[in-house]
């Protein structure tokens, strides 16, 4: 039952700001654990990269339950970056990813500017191919989205992370801003090698009969097919605003969805919520990209990046 | 280690047992072969693409020889309503399974008390079969709203060779009211006989499990409960389904669904 992408002559490798990916598909942080949870279903070493669940310096407990709610064509979550801390990731998850031959991207979280840097410093000797700086989680009170909504704090946290590592630095952006292009430009100016978007859209669901919110934290992040049009629009805007490559995500569940993001300007894509319905989704997306390229006579997947004809 | 499969499972049976409680039997040989009592399957229901999450359902029976899995479900929302419309012989569901940490009775359990509220009877049924086959003396207590909802009674009779202790909220079958007095009496009688229970397992509404855990603790009997939470991935990745325990937040899907009651922070 462990699936790998099918054989093809289409060249699939992409370069995401110095991160060499064997194909343009990674996982959206928080939806795929550290890869091991899905290894019965897909060979995680065959993915472009595995992006791990957000990690902080010490463990975080996360939010109260209920943490999720199903909504039309999507879901809300307010997990709150529950994680056992960077030492656990280093001791257990990263060695496993290295052993199976996977390319690891670590999503880095913090409650303060210094915590982001401390997490990166703790990982500099570990087998990590790139960092994704999470300044876009809507479910924590400090750090996360609160840092990703204002140019000065974006510049500060990205600048500090940049100084801490020579490895590729991807900055994950929130859609919960007025002008996502302005935030992307700030990340680029502060030294980001790539930007990834979108994180979840802040939303809410109500149980009218009980007169209660569906989530214990009342609000949470919307993901799934419902957000795809918003994500595509933002990827398109950001790709035109910055020179660094874009990692696109938001509602991708099949190869054609991924191709749409690449045409809009993404160099690579991430599969997130789709993993929950379909544990083979990552490989299905890669296979779907191959199908499209073969059908359309595309020899190299890089030809798709920004090839939208407007 | 428990390996998971995602199995395309044609429907063999889909019928109402009583009062909005349904039985679904599917052909899923890989899951049927690997399933342990107390594990569950994470079900993708066809034809509801705008409802993107799977539904976790306890395994009511797993027949390795026949390659079939039985699930019991109660019609509560859109997904379970949609499930009732699926036609045996034509439709199929997709199952991730067998998922989770199942029941782990003490290896030398000689006398077990299984307590089920409503469709909580489903994951206890394979445990009843296994304990009975191992020669343990098993007492089952089944509680339901009304007689028609006591849908698992006959299967427990068959598994244990005797009538389970039953209660209904409306008094239409067995003891009237909740099933907790039956549990308290069973624990007391067993202790008075000098043959106390050495294991209690409970699945049902959370208030019931909390009460039964309390009764078991008073009687100093090891107790396990099977917890239910809203769940997204069902494989341990998303941390949606966490349960508060003495060791912090743990995942109902793969650290549970069965937990020692003494570890649960109610």
Automatic annotation (TrEMBL), chain A:
Q: How is the cofactor bound?
A: Binds 1 FMN per subunit.
In its UniProt entry, the species of origin is given as: Adlercreutzia faecimuris
- Keyword field: Cytoplasm, Flavoprotein, FMN, Oxidoreductase, Pyrimidine biosynthesis
The positions annotated for binding FMN are 29, 53-54, 107, 134, 172, 198, 224, 250-251, 272-273
Q: What does this protein do?
A: Catalyzes the conversion of dihydroorotate to orotate.
Subcellular location as annotated: Cytoplasm
The record's listing under NCBIfam families reads: PRK07259.1, pyrD_sub1_fam
Q: Which Pfam families match?
A: DHO_dh (PF01180)
- This chain belongs to the protein called Dihydroorotate dehydrogenase
Q: Which residues form the signal peptide?
A: none
Q: Which residues form the Dihydroorotate dehydrogenase catalytic domain?
A: 12-290
A GO MF term:
dihydroorotate dehydrogenase (NAD+) activity
Q: Which PANTHER family match?
A: DIHYDROOROTATE DEHYDROGENASE (FUMARATE) (PTHR48109:SF1), DIHYDROOROTATE DEHYDROGENASE (QUINONE), MITOCHONDRIAL-RELATED (PTHR48109)
Which EC number(s) does UniProt give? 1.3.-.-
Domain of life (superkingdom): Bacteria
* The keyword Cytoplasm is annotated on this UniProt entry: yes
Annotated catalytic residues: 137
What gene name does this entry carry? pyrD
The pathway this protein participates in, as annotated, is: Pyrimidine metabolism; UMP biosynthesis via de novo pathway
Q: Which Gene3D superfamilies match?
A: Aldolase class I (3.20.20.70)
From TrEMBL, chain B:
Alphabetized CDD domains for the sequence: DHOD_e_trans (cd06218)
Q: Keyword set for this entry?
A: 2Fe-2S, Electron transport, FAD, Flavoprotein, Iron, Iron-sulfur, Metal-binding, Transport
Secretion signal: which residues? none
Q: Which cofactor does it need?
A: [2Fe-2S] cluster
Say if the entry is tagged with keyword Kinase.
no
The record's annotation in InterPro entries points to: Cyt_c3_hydrogenase_gsu, Dihydroorotate_DH_ele_sf, Dihydroorotate_DH_Fe-S-bd, FAD-bd_FR_type, FNR_nucleotide-bd, PyrK_electron_transfer, Riboflavin_synthase-like_b-brl
Q: Which residue numbers delimit the FAD-binding FR-type domain?
A: 4-105
Keyword Iron assigned to the entry: answer is yes
Member of which family? Belongs to the PyrK family.
Q: Which PANTHER family match?
A: DIHYDROOROTATE DEHYDROGENASE B (NAD(+)), ELECTRON TRANSFER SUBUNIT, DIHYDROOROTATE DEHYDROGENASE B (NAD(+)), ELECTRON TRANSFER SUBUNIT-RELATED
Protein name from the UniProt record: Dihydroorotate dehydrogenase electron transfer subunit
Species lineage: Bacteria, Bacillati, Actinomycetota, Coriobacteriia, Eggerthellales
